[in-house]
Please model this.
Amino acid sequence: MTATAPTPPVSAEPKQPPATPDARELLIAEMTRRMGRIPFLDHISATPVFGRNWRVNAWTQEAIGGAKVVKSFFVTTDAQGTIIACDPPLP
Model:
């Protein structure tokens, strides 16, 4: 009797291409525009989590004490890089 390896489960979601540097820059630009003015803003980071889902953080640099995250979002984009969902919601 020959044993066969189990078949891996098939995902119902289609595979999405990995994020590109251009996608990151477009997302940061759009988030910057939609968040408005943030006092003492140092930078905005966008990290791909999976598929077209991102963790976006707004970092400030106040006088002494180092940088800290003042706003954080979980963002989903479409194939063109348009924001289709954001938690918490953007204005």
Q: What stands out?
A: The first helix runs from residue 21 to 35. The chain has a mean pLDDT of 82. The chain is about 15% helix and 40% strand.
